[in-house]
Design a protein that fits this description.
homodimer; 440 residues; alpha/beta; TIM Barrel; 8-stranded parallel beta barrel; two-stranded antiparallel sheet; 15 strands; nucleotide-binding (chains A, B); Luciferase-like_dom (chains A, B); secreted (chains A, B); oxidoreductase activity, acting on paired donors, with incorporation or reduction of molecular oxygen (chains A, B); Luciferase-like_sf (chains A, B)
Chain lengths: 440, 440
């Protein structure tokens, strides 16, 4: 049976998410991000297109590296202003039945005890349609604003994230037994206290006696996403992630990451197929090639190199305004980096431009050759990019048996891993915390 | 012109909020608190009844004082399990147009920088219908679970809350100027960077350079509620609160608090009428007195003394299981305290039982004699208590000109303080932070 492709909409609760400069495009409605209807309309559109999930990126700091200032990011709305993505979920869940919501949250700034409750609450309210994209954040401005005194190195932030997840797993998987809530009216026992356990976590970064504040939600643990392609990031993915958002735009790079993470997963006793691999993709589709190119040119017209340099500075720490084009960063010249960023050719992700058939061919090729399971679909204009994809590419993928015609029933985890799999599999590291008793 | 009474529904994102034992009542649907539709149906009902707001209490710890254990609270669902109230708001805002949402959040556990963004996000999404009930929390179990190493004394927690609010005011009122966002397409300027200011806050508890992550929302600062009646709590209310949730069930007590807080407010240069006073009230109304008494008896039947003792223990720190009835706590014997709690006579708040006329009389009397402006309406059964009030008491109040017939247009602050008052008045302490410039 042909493998169905999973499609997520890649979004962010701000004006300028990724295609910087395009807020100026006449068809772009991103300025409506503060309006609840922008989001409920988007969720309904995505459900109409049978998308798996809305993937919401997030940052809690400002890009202030480029030109040693935050002004370019602020001027061009490069992920600032930026609102809290968790606040959007319940309204979007109310207007949909199947769409899932993968929301980014950093383990660097706020305590796991409060976060574990937020995610359990959202898993309840969405009836099991919530996922968490775990990030370890790297923005100095966020460190300062959250009063982080001791700035941890890149890899140690993943060590902290390991323990952060351990605390969450103990709360989600082990603190309340499945049949703790019994609602015994006769004996006035809503919850059997003997089935609610302290977790007594004592670690390097956190002391959390527990118990969890929430009764078990449909998935208990939200579907875990991870998106860091560094060595340490891939190790973290292999240990924790059920879905990985890969970097890279060509088969070789993607395949390397896919194979590497699946291999590492075995070390943790995990079935490598218990991890779905997502690649970012930019799609500009038209009924004809010319129509697609016309759209591309209209986007290129508003494309802002300055905006992308501000984003690049925040993401890498390199202020390219201080370099000459002949300087090198790693193996690439600054001239080449800047040239790449000045063109709309999908600097980080594969760009597929053309007819529905061409786009479907290129997506199918990446899936089959790189061994990935789905895509995070980038937006140029909102909601136009998704409208085009749903009207033109989805039918083509469905014709090839590569995309669902109707939603399957069940939670997000079941839609990814099959009916009945609404909880994490036993080979996941979280499963060891299921039989926590008070004396742990 | 007769003063209109403001009515809030008093709720909590859990099973057992306040009328412990009544989760067993056949008409009570509180077990549906994990279901999004419970909340959207409630919001629609309250808007039908022209309520001002849904007031959501919250705790992030467990009552574990009574019988030196958390078991009674867990067994009887006394505010555990408890989900996060902020996650509910966007769905309820989506199905209503006027109802406001006053949500409780503690200044003790999570950093103001993340909280300021959450509230700005909700003020945007609700189009100016969000309020924040500021609490300084007191539960040891929450202190442990959030890893609070240094437990602050009661009054010092208010000092920290003062600074917490100062940080938030600087972010909400001063960081982004009203016309910072200009959306100048021609010059690719979404936001004028010179109108986005760092706040450079440096205090005893927080260092927050800023700027805020969010563009100005309709109200900028959510409507500020406060609910602590200690000496320090009233001082805090006088300085910050626009709405105060008073303790007390008789005219004398309520009037003392009202007069005291209004007097203190003058010290801060505030017009005392810029503070609305809310008393808690329990209403059991029937078309006839007998019908009301029948309801009361059905509630009394399920009333749980043990549940209330668990709540009392968590709230006061006194484990009454260790006292004999002749012991005294303050000026009241333990026997009297327990006797009060065993009857459904509104242990903390005024109980009004009877016909619509009697209930309206008693509400009008409290408003006129104690100088209060509205009520937080307690629930016995959900949604029955609110349905009865809306069907029987609201028409009676409307007949007397004491209650709106239709909603006024505008934000929550405008509905409280009049059209055009969507931002904090100039006499509020937050106003001083409006002209923050980079060198503050």
């Amino acid at each position: 049976m042909t493998k169905k492709i999973h499609i997520n909409a890649f979004e962010m609760n701000c004006v300028g998410h990724i295609a910087h400069g395009l807020w100026r495009h006449p068809e772009n409605q991103r300025h409506r991000y503060t309006d609840l209807n922008y989001w409920t309309e988007l969720a309904q559109l995505l459900e109409k297109g049978k998308f798996d999930a809305l993937f919401l990126a997030d940052v809690v700091g400002i890009y202030d590296v480029y030109r040693q200032s935050r002004d370019t990011a602020v001027r061009e709305a490069v992920q600032i202003p930026v609102n809290d993505p968790l606040m959007l979920i319940s309204a979007m869940a109310y207007v949909t039945k199947h769409l899932a919501f993968a929301v980014t949250f950093s383990t660097t700034y706020e305590h796991p005890y409060g976060h574990a409750r937020r995610m359990s609450t959202l898993d309840h309210l969405t009836k099991g349609r919530i996922a968490w994209n775990v990030v370890t954040s790297h923005l100095p401005s966020a460190d300062k604003n959250f009063g982080i005194k001791k700035i941890l190195e890149h890899d140690e932030r993943y060590d902290l994230a390991d323990e952060y997840l351990e605390v969450c797993y103990k709360l989600w998987e082990g603190s309340w037994e499945d049949n703790a809530v019994i609602r015994d009216i006769e004996n006035n026992i809503y919850t059997d206290p003997s089935k609610v356990h302290e977790i007594n976590h004592s670690g390097k970064y956190f002391e959390v006696p527990g118990p969890h504040l929430c009764e078990p939600s449909p998935q208990r643990t939200p579907v875990i996403y991870q998106a860091g392609m560094s060595e340490r990031g891939r190790e973290f993915a292999a240990k924790h992630a059920e879905c990985v958002f890969l970097g890279g735009k060509d088969v070789e790079t993607l395949k390397f990451f896919v194979d590497d993470i699946r291999k590492r997963a075995k070390k943790y006793g995990r079935n490598p197929d218990h991890i779905k691999m997502f690649a970012g993709i930019c799609v500009i589709v038209g009924k004809t090639h010319d129509e697609a190119m016309e759209k591309l040119n209209s986007f290129q017209k508003y494309w802002s190199l300055e905006g992308h340099l501000a984003h690049y500075g925040g993401g890498t720490g390199y202020d390219l305004s201080k370099y000459s084009s002949n300087d090198y960063i790693g193996s690439i010249s600054v001239g080449e980096i800047i040239n790449n960023m000045s063109k709309l050719d999908g600097k980080w992700f594969k760009l597929s431009v053309g007819t529905p058939k061409k786009v479907a061919d290129e997506m199918q090729y990446l899936v089959e050759e790189a061994g990935i399971d789905g895509f995070n679909l980038v937006q140029y204009v909102s909601p136009g990019t998704f409208v085009d994809f749903i009207e033109l590419v989805v039918p083509e993928l469905q014709k090839r048996g590569l995309y669902r015609v109707d939603y399957e029933e069940g939670t997000y985890r079941e839609k990814l891993f099959g009916k009945g799999n609404y909880r994490l599999p036993d080979d996941h590291i979280a499963a060891r915390y299921r039989n926590i008793s008070s004396n742990v």
